[in-house]
Specification:
Two copies of one chain form a homodimer.
Chain A lengths: L1 E5 L3 E6 L4 E6 L12 E5 L2 H8 L4 E3 L15 H8 L4 E6 L2 E8 L2 E9 L1 H11 L20 H18 L5 E4 L3 H4 L7 E2 L3 H12 L3
Helix pairs in contact in A: 2-6
């Protein structure tokens, strides 16, 4: 079976038989070149529109019990929650979304700027705050230099917040591996969204 | 005695006899119109240069024991620390600086984007994340809507971080009063920098 997660830059495919994943550019890939049935989620609106016209592309958003989440919640966050029964999902991309699931039920979550957005925000306040934020900053003592003071500010509260849920932590998204330096017991799962899609297919006997 | 704290937009004066404070614009105020002795700190470089030439303007930065802090630490943060013996100072302006003092000794601190910088960072990630961040967000339960998810992301980790020091919290800067909704037991002290300046004068028998 073929699954696809479409973001703002790429189609991310996953073949459940071969367990292989690969990417194609949103700009150049033509989805009508695929003839087999394919289940997808999509957050890139121009592509979503294109896919609606293709009968073999099946939008998994239609099978979600949306009342368990909230109206404006991104389908990618919802599908990630569908992947687990218990835990906190930290999806670290341009934004960092944090969602808490207990006994298969979404408990709520929050949104935080990603590394690059945070760096940009700091350098816009003052050139003196321009830095490359460092996931390996020491959380055991309060910083006494500007570079560490900025990295600590970015990460220490986030760490305390997420660890306060006393739950398994699952990291996904582009900065997942970097974030593992902050959350030492966390698991990195780059295929979390595909697991969520498979769970949703099972729930709906598809 | 006259004290003055010069930021990027204004001269903030404090008269220790009358206990009154008032502001003048950095752009239009001429410091040579003051003839009496005045102790100041300054972070606005063009103004700092101007003041060096005026004999009655005495830069308090020259009296600080800088080895107790760190090289690139702003003089405003240092002077705030001089004001207290124990506590955590949260100075909420364009950036939020957090500095921890124990037994009169600076223990370290960190830097976080201020409200406006945080809002700008979010809206640059996606127009869907454009919001006015809300200091009165509920920290007792995880959000289930985008507006609260953003305000919670801005403040909840910061709150946990600062409260983890188990120390008195002193709020100062433009957003101090707003922040009091987050730190309910905190004190707001808009004259904290002047208190620090007075302490430094005492230490140096000036």
């Amino acid at each position: 079976m073929l699954l696809c997660d479409i973001g703002n830059t790429s189609y991310h495919f996953y073949n459940t038989q071969t367990k292989k994943s690969y990417k194609k550019s949103v700009k150049t890939f033509d989805p009508s070149t695929i003839n087999e049935k394919i289940y997808y989620i999509c957050v890139h609106h121009p592509t979503c529109k294109k896919l609606q016209k293709l009968q073999n592309w099946i939008n998994l958003e239609d099978f979600v019990q949306r009342h368990l989440y909230y109206d404006t919640m991104g389908i990618d966050r919802i599908i990630a929650c569908e992947a687990i029964q218990n835990g906190v999902i930290v999806d670290a991309g341009s934004a960092i979304t944090v969602d808490f699931v207990q006994n298969g039920i979404f408990q709520g979550g929050f949104i935080y700027p990603g590394k690059k957005a945070f760096e940009d925000a700091l350098s816009r306040i003052s050139p003196a705050l321009t830095t490359s934020l460092d996931f390996s900053v020491n959380f055991q003592k309060l910083p006494k230099n500007t570079h560490d003071a900025l990295s600590y500010g970015f990460l220490s509260g986030l760490k305390k917040e997420i660890e306060s849920y006393n739950s398994d932590i699952i990291l996904t998204g582009g900065d997942a591996k970097e974030l593992q330096q902050v959350f030492e017991t966390a698991m990195v799962d780059e295929l979390l969204l595909f697991k969520g899609m498979i769970e949703l297919l099972k729930k709906n006997s598809l």
